[in-house]
Design brief:
By secondary structure, the protein is of the alpha+beta class. The protein contains six helices and 21 strands. Strand 19 and strand 20 form a beta hairpin.
Length: 365
Amino acid sequence: MRKQEEQRGIAAVMFAVLLLGIIGFAALALDIGMLYSQRTQLQRAADAGALAGAFTFVSEPFAAQPATATAHATAASTNNLVDNTALASGEVTVNVDTANRRVTVNIAHPENTFLARAFNINSLTIHVTAVAEASPTANGGACVKPWFIPNTIVDKADDPCTACAAGKTLLQNNQVTPYALSLIQSSGTGNQLLIKPQQPANAIGPGQFYAIQLPGSGGASDYRDNIGYCNPVSIMCRNFYSVETGNMSGPTVQGAKTLINFPTQDTYLGLGQYQRPDGTISDTSQSLILAPIWDTCNISGFCPGGKFGTGTNVSVQVIGFGLVFVEGVQGGDVVVRLINVTPCGLIPVPSTAPYAIPVRLVRTD
């Protein structure tokens, strides 16, 4: 009888130990699964913050740093919800390396546990890190608009060859010129341009550009759609691209209206400040586009006439990209603002350099 009681006692102890183990494994599975989900959401918040901070070096080239990058990184991180709850600003730490245009976001978020509380573990802190950088040079990009803008397009009074002689260019020796920077910095009408396409058989005047025939596209309909929507074909630095030969004035205006949702388009307030139709202000906009730049000053046979003299088989080379805000349309012209200019890197294609909006995540934990 006593032996049976002892066996029952041992069985009870073993059951208790087994039950404790089951609870432990359940706690491990439930809490680790929950914490993993939290970590994924926190990593997205950190990635968004790092990219937003780095983007300020491109979208607001004259903003005070590191304050601007820090503010944007913090706001983007805390705007991301974790289990439908906003992060506290105190959970986000931002470090900005201004010299290298690099932003690091660290998030330390405490999360309550469930079954692990049986082991006196009431909460755990999840740590994530994201690093993003904005390169000073570009390599190429997708969704680029088919507007091949001359290096001299910002000169509103002179033909390209006269502008070249006067040094009124966007880029020179793989650097953004002081002349271009002075126009970008102007928040008034200084950096507002009226642009329109020109055929390569005719001389280019102030504000005129060539329409690009993107790879795989052809004709006015494709050209118009490539303005209004995103064409995923990459336009690469140092490559040559064919110029459209027809009159693209109509398709240019039609595509621009589609792009900006005319007449309810976003409003330009200043660099990195774009007001949407509902009144909210953002540093991004559907009206921000990339356009490749070609060099009018050093291409053989273009100057002094300012034209190629033929309407067929004309190709020009990408030397950089312009970040442009499409403000509206005016008759047959498109009204734009020059936001920033990025030269091509010295490394030939292919390379591992960042793309035309030169912002990328370089490490995540």
